[in-house]
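Team,

Forwarding the record for the chain on the shared tracking sheet. I've put the sequence and predicted structure together so nobody has to dig through attachments.
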Amino acid sequence: MKQTLQLGTLSVANIGMAFLFQWYLFTQLGPGVQTDALFAGMTLPQLILSVISNSLMHVLVPLFAGESEETLRHDAWGYTVLVAAMFSVIAALLYFTAPLWVSIVVPGFSQVALSLTVDLTRIQLIGMVFSAVNGVQWAAYHARGRFIYAEFSPIVANLVALLLVSWVLPRYGIRGAAWISSLRLAIQTILLLPGIGKFVPLNLKRLSIKSAWDRIGPLLLGTTYYKTDPLVDRFLLSASLSGNLSLYYLAQQIYGAINQVLNKAIAAPMVPRLSTLYKACDYAGFRQLYYKRLVQMSAVAVVSFVLIGAFGQFFLGLLIGHGRVSTDNVKDLWWILIWLGGMFIGGATGQITSTTFYACGDTSTPTRMSMLTYTVYTPSKITAFYLWGVCGLAIATSIYLMANLISQLYFLKVKKIV
């Protein structure tokens, strides 16, 4: 419980500072072309980052857990070098082809908005490389059970970014803010370097690449498909009223921030423990830990949503109802949060079910289920958007995440994992 509270507090502080960064941009600029361009520009890079880097995180923590210090240090540096090289190549390709794919992602943008989106995307691609490396570093920290420092380092980076953006934005505009975003991730990478030990030259023969690939292969194939969800959202919302994309993105960020806090405090600490219990064949302890975390996560998620429904509009008014953000903007954002309630609850609780599969080395089952539900969901979402606009889009997303959670709960029972 002590560790949960500590991690929750650090995560809240970290996410709070990251939110202040976006709050400052949002209130100073208002929802419009500049914020739409900033949020839309990283859609494809974030998709690639989510598919590869997040998949590595799910795979590397169970692989690193229980290994000797020397083996873990060697593997951590090996994967750090490989991931940095791979994402540098991806960033270079995306940089030179940005005018092409940006116009496909947001076809409803004006020529001015498209040009700005390309510029902001190219700046933020640098941050994508550092963010990918952070994924390997975090895996090493989590495998050792060193959650506190891993959670503290982004606070320092976010604090620096927050101090800089208030000086940079009035002088260099939205492009300066994009540079600060990339700098923040670079600082975080530097702060996390000591945790993976003294540098070890890359030795491909010693890396457990085959074992990692056996687990990450199904994840890459599946997540490349169903993680295209943000691309569909940006494509649809680019033809909507100016500012709708920013409001929808901000709603997702708010829930994403709360989910991140819950993940750091409840879900993430259980992964190395579950992996160790599974390797030791302590299935009773494995099930006990799973059910404890499942009840905790679902209870906190439901209570949080009720509080957002009851007091959300009031607090949103206090937080962002300033500058160029109107009362109608605040009300629209609150309604989007209500419509996305199922996404929040299903996504938060789904972190427990999916990581339980991953702790057992089973990455294919949750991936196949997500692919199936996504196949049904995508045409339904598009239809709902054209019939009911942003409301239809959000409700369809909620139904999708809840359906995904229910299917994972079912198959955890069927496969007798819990």
